[in-house]
Design a protein that fits this description.
Number of strands: 6
Largest sheet: 2 strands, antiparallel
Low-confidence stretches: none
Radius of gyration: 23 Å
Number of helices: 6
Strand content: 5-15%
Strand order of the largest sheet: 1-2
Structural class: alpha+beta
């Protein structure tokens, strides 16, 4: 069937409804969709877009570059882990102000060096060091994958199934 062109017979509204909603990573505006006529590769080009236009792309690049400079001032780079030397939260993870809010330093490291974190995914550590922000030691995973990794490495403490200690243990 060489040379046969497959044409999508759905209406423009049906094709629009089938596509996921995309928003600009810089300003949050909905991306303007230009439906192609029977050319799915052009639709896929739209779906890979991250910004509504060049001004937002350039602003995002400038912001990220400035944040990277601030971020790298707070890292103690060693041969293995890059240890966070900035603010540490109660769980032992670093905190950093990025894109208008405080976020965990390892999540910011992923965003600066690898790009945005897809919704629903966690940034996990291969090295199990909460202060580590080395992008080579980080990976993306679901909550389930993170918990399986935790159990496999022996870091998981199972909860006390019975709640508080037994009555006799409380008073001994």
């Amino acid at each position: 069937m060489a040379g046969v062109r497959v044409v999508d017979r759905r209406t423009v509204q049906e094709r629009l409804a089938a596509l996921p909603v995309r928003v600009c990573e810089q300003c949050g505006a909905r991306l303007v969709l230009r439906i192609s006529r029977g050319e799915p590769e052009r639709d896929s080009q739209f779906l890979s877009r991250r910004f509504c236009g060049q001004p937002c792309h350039f602003a995002w690049t400038r912001e990220t570059a400035a944040a990277k400079r601030r971020f790298e001032k707070r890292i103690d780079k060693t041969a293995g882990c890059w240890l966070w030397a900035g603010t540490i939260d109660v769980r032992g993870y670093g905190d950093f102000w990025f894109r208008g809010r405080t976020d965990s330093a390892h999540r910011v490291a992923w965003a600066i060096y690898n790009g945005p974190i897809p919704e629903g995914l966690f940034v996990c550590h291969h090295c199990d060091n909460p202060k580590c922000v080395n992008p080579g030691h980080l990976f993306l995973g679901t909550n389930s994958e993170n918990m399986k990794d935790c159990v496999a490495k022996g870091r998981h403490k199972p909860p006390n199934r019975w709640g508080k200690k037994k009555h006799a243990e409380l008073f001994s």
